Amino acid sequence: MKNIFQKISSLLLASLVLISTFSFTVEKHYCGRFLVDVAVYSKAKDCGMDMMNHDDSSDDHVKKKSCCKDEIIVLEGQDELKVSFDQLEFSDQLFITSFFYSFADLFLLQKEKAFIPKEYSPPERYKDIQILFETFLI
User: Fold this and answer.
1) What does residue 4 show for φ and ψ, rounded to 5 degrees?
2) What is the pLDDT of residue 108?
3) HSE on the CB side for 137, CA within 13 Å?
4) DSSP 87
5) Measured between alpha carbons, how far is 105 from 85 in angstroms, rounded to an integer?
6) pLDDT by position in tens, the chain (length 138)
7) Of 38, 75, 83, 119, which one's alpha carbon is 20 to 30 angstroms from that of 20?
8) What is the pTM for the complete model shown?
């Protein structure tokens, strides 16, 4: 049972470290108010409206504002995982060390050894049990 718990906890902790360092981008393309495409790790497809606004033949046209909008969400993971013990303040160091020393013995399983010497004599009886319970052999 202990091995299974250790394997599960180590797997969960490893996945936690992996997820915390993982970063990704989500790109969304809106055409007007409508969401056209959502892409993770790649560029979102456009709706083709940008090509309609581009006109090479005449410079007289006033350029219209595009109705399309791109939204990029970048979720960055943690870059630095190792925190040095020297960077902590003295009060934090004191707390961590006292926490470790006070609770370390709770999690260690100690085998109890029964100490029975070879020359063991049973203790003296203080009360006579037969008289106490008034049970006599006839």
Assistant:
1) -65, -45
2) 72
3) 0
4) G
5) 22
6) 888 999 999 999 999 888 888 888 899 988 888 888 888 888 888 777 765 555 555 554 555 667 888 889 888 877 776 666 677 888 888 998 888 888 877 777 777 777 777 777 777 767 887 888 888 777
7) 38
8) 0.40
Two tokens, residue 73: 């969400």
- The amino acid occupying position 65 is K
Q: What angle do CA 131, 137, 138 make, to 5 degrees?
A: 125
Q: From residue 51, give the alpha-carbon distance in Å to each of 55, 56, 66, 68, 77.
A: 8, 11, 10, 11, 36
DSSP letter, residue 77: -
Q: Say which DSSP state 127 is in.
A: S
**Distance (Å, rounded) from C-alpha 136 to C-alpha 128?**
12
* Closest C-alpha to 44, from 30, 64, 61: 30
- Residue 24 and residue 40 in contact, taking contact as beta carbons nearer than 8 Å: yes
The two structure tokens encoding residue 87:
């960077």
| Backbone torsion region of residue 132, taken as left when φ is above 0, otherwise alpha when ψ lies between -120 and 50, otherwise beta | alpha
Residue 30 in 3-state DSSP?
strand
